[in-house]
Structure formats: C-alpha cells, structure tokens
Amino acid sequence: MSLIKQLWLFLLIIVVFAFGGTCLISSLGAGSYLEQQLHLKNQDNAASLALAITQLEKDPVTLELLVSAHFDSGHYRQIQLTDPSGNVIIELTNPPVDYDVPNWFINLFPIQVDAGVAQVQDGWRQFATLTLYSHDRFAYQELWRSSKHLAIWFVSGLIFCGGVGSIIIRRITRPVGEVISQAEAIGERRFVTITEPATQEFRRIVRAMNTLSGRIRAMLEAEAERLEKLRFAAHYDPLTGALDRQHFIDTLESLLEHDETRSGSLIIGRVTGLDDLNRQLGRQVVDQVLVRIGERLINLREDQPDWLVGRLSGADFALLAPEENDTLQVAQRVATQLHLAADEANLAGERLLPVGGTLFNPGEELSAVLSRADGALIMAERGADMAVQVSAAGAKSPGQTNLTSWRKALTDALELNDVKLAEYPVLGRENDLLHHEAPVRLRLDGNWQTAATFIPWVARLGLLPQLDTAVIHTALTELNKRETCLGVNISGEALSDKSFRQEALQALKENPHAATKLWVEIPEAAAFRQLDEFRSLCRELKSFGCKVGLEHVGSHFSRINELHDLGLDFIKVDAALIRGATGNHASQAFLRGLCTIAHAIGLNVIAEGVRDEKEPACLINLGFDGMTGPGVRENT
Amino acid sequence: MPATDFKTICTRFVTLAAGLSVLLLLITSGYAFRVDFGRMHKLAEERYGPSGQQRVQDWHKLLDQLSQLRHKPQLEQINHFINQRVFYSEDLVVWKKNDYWATPLESFGRGAGDCEDSAIAKYFSLLRLGIPDTQLRLTYVRAKQAGGARAHMVLTYYPAADQEPLILDSLRNEILPASRRPDLFPIFSFNSSGLWVGGKPFQKETPSARLSNWRSVLTRMQEEGWQ
C-alpha cells in the first residue's frame, strides 16, 4: 500500500475512533444516567403517594380521586394498585404516544426504568402494593436530541479533520513524488537536480541526490572538455585549427553517403608558390599567413555553423558548405577572406590565391567531387582575370527537373501513401539485431526512388514534416506485423512542426505496442539547433516507450551533457569519425572517451557507415555497442 | 431534566464503568441472599475489636442454629438476641449524627443502636433465615408513652397477607400481635421490594442512591459482605 494511502487510513481510523467513541460513550452514558434518575423519581413518587394513601380513608372514591389526581398532574406511564393477593384495585395507564424518536434509536439505546414500588397500609393491615412507572418519552426525546447534536458534531468534526488532514498529508507527501522521480531519473542515469523540499527528511535526501547529480554533471563536463581536446588533436591541423585532410575527406565522404543529404558546395582555395614564399619570407612568417587564413575561414562558421573548414595540404584550404547550392557566392566569400588575410600579411597579387569550387549532389563518388573541385581550382589558377572558378554538379540528374513537377510527384506519392521503408540492419556486439534502420523510399512516376533522389526537393518544397509523418505511419504499420524494431529518421524541420507532432503522437497513441519497438533518431545538428523542441518531443516520444537517439553525432558531442537529463537511449556516431577507428591513436582515444562518457549517462553507442571487415572488431574494442553500414550484414 | 452536558456525562460514565466490575459480579451471582461471614468477621475485628467480633460471631452462630426452625421460634430468638446485644441508644450518642441508619454489622460492632438500627438488624437477620420479604415490613409508628408520643420504628411480621401482624419491638422482648399493642399507631411501612428489583439485591447502587437513608444502608451492607 502506498504511503499516502496508509497515512489516510491512519487518519481515518483515529478520527472515527475519537469521534465515534465519544459519540457512543456519551449516548450510553446519558442513557444510563436518565435510567437512574427516572428510577429514583419512580421510587420517590411511589413512596410519597403510598404514604398519602396510607393516611386517608380507603373508600373507593377517595382512592380513585387520589391516584387519578396524582396520575393526571404528573408524568406517568402507569400507576397500579394491587391488593396483597395480587388483584388489581386501580390501574391507570397513559395510551402509547408518539415519541418523535425513530424506532431504531429506541432499539439501539433502550431506556429500561424499573418501577417504583411502595406499600400501602390500612392501620396494621396490609392494604395494597403501589407500582408506578414514569413516562420515558421525555428521556428518549432528550437522549435523541443530545445524540443528534453529538452526531452533527461528529460528522462536522470528521469532515473538518478529514479536510485539514488531507491538506496536511498532501503537504507532507507532495515532495515524495518529486524525490521518487529524481531517484528514478538517477537510476536511469539522468542526473537531474530539483529544488529542495521543506520537509526535513526529504530535504536531506534531495540534497544528497542533488550533490550526487551535481558531481556527476561536473565530471561529465570535465570529461566532455577533455574529449573535445582529444577530438581536436585527432582531427584538426594543429597550426591553423582547420580539420586535417583525412578527417575533412572522411566527413565529405560520409556526407555524400548519407541518404538524406542535399546538394552542397565544396570550395578549395590555394596559396600558390608556398615554397617560394617560405624561402623569401621565412617559414615563420608564412605560418603566420596560414594561421590568419585558417582563422578567417573558421570565422565564416559563425554565421553558418554547419560549414566545415579543412586544410587539405600545406597550401590548400577547403570549405564544405552542406545544403548550400550557391557555390559561386561561397567561393567568392572564401576568396575575399584569403585576400584579406594576404593583405594583412602584405602579400600582394591575386594570382597567389586561386579559389575553385563545385556543387555536389548526394550519392556522388568522392573522387568525382574532389576532382571537379581540383579542376576548378586549376582553372582558377590559370585564368588570368578570374581567380574564382566553379563547376556544376555532376551526374545524378533527377527525373523531374522543375519545381512544379516535383511538387506534384511528391504530393501524389504522399497522398497515395506510396511510401515504403528500406531496411538496413543495426547489429549489437554479439552480432545480435538491435533494429533495422529504415530510410524512406517513395514511388515517383512508378519507380521506387531512394531518399537521396527526392530529399533535396522535399526540403526545398517544405514537405519534410509531411514526409516524416508518412514515415512514422508506415513504420508503425510495419511494426504491427513484426517483432523486430525499426529505426526512423526525423528531420530538423519536423521537430518544430506542430502538425507533424500532433499526427505522430496520435499515431503512437493508437499503436501503443508498435510504439515500443520504434527507434526515432534526429540529426545531432538539428537537435542542438532546436534544443527546446527536441527536449519536448523527446519526452513525449519516451512516454510512449519509443527509443530516442541522435544520429550523425560528431562535432557537437561535447555538448551532450546538455542532454544528459533527457534519458536518451542511443547515439549513432557519424561515419566520418568511424573512419578514424582503424586509424591513428588520437582518433581511437577520442572514440574510446566518447563511448565512456556516453555509457556513463546511459547511452548506447552505435557506429554509422561501418565498411570493411576490420572495423567492427576495432569498434567493439573501443566500446561501441552496435554498428551499421554497408559492411554490416545480418546473419541469415 | 437538565441539559446533559458532555463533561458531566463523561464523568458519570467513568464512575459507572468503575462500579461495573462489582455489579457484574453481583448480577452473575444470581438470587441468593448470602452473607460473606468471613469478610464480616474480619471487618468486625478490624473496626470494633474483640467484643464487637464476639457479638458478630454469636449472631452468626444463632443464624446457623435457627436456619432449620419455623418462623415463630426464629422471630422470638432473633428478637431476643438483638434486643440483648444491641443496647438502645440514640444516634447522637452512638454515631454523633442526628439520624443515622446503621447496618447489622455496625449495630453489633458497637453493641448499641436506636429503634431503626435494631429493626434493620432484625429485618435482615430474618431475610437471611429465609422469611420472604413480602411478610416483613419496617413500620414507622407513633408510640404513646408516659410523657406523650414519640416517633418509633418496629419490625412487623405478617403470618399471612390478610392477617394482623406481629410486632418485633426493640423496647419489649415479647412479640405481640398488633391488636395487643394499643400504644402503637402505624404511620407508614416499607420493605425492600422495589429496591431489589427482579429479585436481585443491591442492584443499581449508584452514588446518588446514598442520598436516601434506606439506600445508604443497603449500599454499606453490600460493602460489608451481604450479597
């Protein structure tokens, strides 16, 4: 039984005993008191009447008058005069009257008054025995009245005590719920702190738990900071602070492989004649120039946090602008920064700083994109008057090419529910199936198309929330037919979309069993961009038993402690980072640290984009709990 | 009837409950007019010393001897014994009170008492011997004497309901029928019927019952071992 119920019961028992006992005792006491008093009255009245009769003539008329006078002027039920042999001489009885008192009450508290008995003498001779009963009507009425008053007191006392008691119990136990949820949160490795309640005992518990939470949070922060340093050492060029070549290329490659990637721009800028400069100006001066360039390019990320800056070689800087289709404009911004940096270092001449760029589409080969960008760079280097060259995107020409026909095709597909989910296994450490990752497929003009084909257009047309809604519906329908779990991606756009949220939650409510098998993942960048929306959606999803996690986790991992209290279930680490698992020591140290922290706050860590046979063993060694990617196949 | 306020009721209830155990014992003992002589001897010794105890022992012995006899010899013996052993004396002298009704133990203990004390002692002795209550009356009489009239109490015995009674007087040893006692004029008589309702003596003796002399005697007798 719960604490609150026990307290309530305790209170009820006390109140009922106190008032009920009082009520009963006083009614019984009053009854007995009345009985006693009436008996004394009977006795006294019998004695005085008998004395009076003894003194007078005993002729029938006098007797009759005497007894009647007494009977009529007093409150009697019966007066009886019997001679010594038991014959009744006179008997006067009042007819039964209405008591104004309920029968059950009379039965419950009977007033049994003994008769008053006295002897009547005629000289020395025994004349008669007088038996007299007073009327008990008044006694009953009085008892009934006082019992009623007591009962009213009892009920009002009960209500009052119950009311006051429940307020007090509520006040005492209100913090219990909070304390319990905090304790449970800590059990789930969500290290939340709550305000200390007023009750002393609870306050001590909460203070202790808050201290625990605070310490663990501080530890997490320190770990995250350390990890950030490791990440930097593993992936960044120590001189300029830009990404090193390997990690930049890994990132670009993983971006091209993502199903839901939209087209973006890759820009490469070069400081030509670096060796000459080194000789002319000295290495230190040239390093200063390179640092400036790095700083200026990295500063561009202030407006565009998604952009990435890398140093591809000694002289080459690269900028990756995902979802940015105006390549030329980006290239010009890069060129401007290069020139400004050069000006600051008093290096004159445009020809020193060519910039080349290209648009890329998802699904393209890495080498193709890189060679296009390189080609543009060489063009820029050669071109006398234009230092900025841009090539168009290659390959991947979608069926429809204009917005109107895309809109029609997409809305048709969504309306006809021409939606299905592909399935790629996500395996655990023992090669056990965690769930199937399920990227969306749409049937456009009769052909099933991969996300890479239509996602950019869906995004441009603002249909992502509708698409995600359809994905949720499809996934739940599918989950009703099977026992294994499915993982679906939700876009950042859907995160802040009200109708998506309503429809998705409604669908989950209608399929409570399927909901527990649904894994929902949201891109890391989107989650941190819309932290509040993510938090609230996460809570709602978790209330249905869904598993919630982040995908493409990488550069923002050091902020994971901002989410530790949400009770996320898993993170999927970006393929770009996974490439490092088989690589250098620093990368491995970073990944190992990442797994440790994630485990500390109860997250499962899953690797994305696992390719060859070697990687899984390495990843498991580093502490990963699961993996997915082209190299991961389900054992059948 | 005054309004019964809560406090009074509670107080009364507590008093009532305290007496409850005693009463329960009495009720369960059923109707048998018994005397706990052991207790009575002990009390007599404690309160009145050897002479008091002796009188109680004599009385006890007499009751035992008389128990199988008929009413007439019982009346004579008891009348004689009590007139001998309870020396007539006013309440003011014996009890330092204007009017005091003594129990048999008290009367034997002191060896003195007035007409009421003597009548009471006889009344209960005869009841104890098995004479029915209906045949006995304690009677207030007006007694004519040389100096005028005085209030007096005697015990009367009715051989039958319609016959004239025999008078057991503390001032005269011989038992005479009422017609031979012209010096006495009856005023009022009573016995314990009505007080001992349902054949259960000493029932419902509450503190308020002590207010009457008669009740007070009955209550004290109960404490002294009458059951």
What do you see in this structure?
The complex is a heterodimer of chains A (636) and B (227). Chain A has 636 residues and is α/β, with parallel strands linked by helices. Chain A has three domains: 3-160, Translation Initiation Factor IF3, CATH 3.30.110.200; 236-391, Alpha-Beta Plaits; 403-627, TIM Barrel (Alpha-Beta Barrel), CATH 3.20.20.450. Chain A has 21 helices and 20 strands. In chain A, the strands form four sheets. Chain A has an eight-stranded mixed β-barrel, surrounded by four helices. In chain A, strands 6-7-5-8-9 form a five-stranded mixed β-sheet, sandwiched between helices. The radius of gyration of chain A is 47 Å and the shape is rod-shaped. The relative contact order of chain A is 0.07. The model of chain A has no long low-confidence stretch (mean pLDDT 86). Chain B has one domain: C8orf32 fold (Roll). Helix content of chain B is 46%, strand content 16%. Chain B has seven helices and seven strands. Chain B has helices spanning 6-28, 37-66, 71-85, 91-94, 104-110, 115-129, 213-223; strands spanning 87-88, 112-113, 136-145, 148-157, 166-168, 176-177, 184-190. In chain B, strands 6-5-4-3-7 form a five-stranded antiparallel β-sheet, with helices on one face. The longest helix of chain B is centred in the first third of the chain and has 30 residues, at 37-66. Mean pLDDT of chain B is 79; it is low at 13-32. The chains are: A alpha/beta (636), B alpha+beta (227). The interface between A and B is large, with 39 and 35 residues.
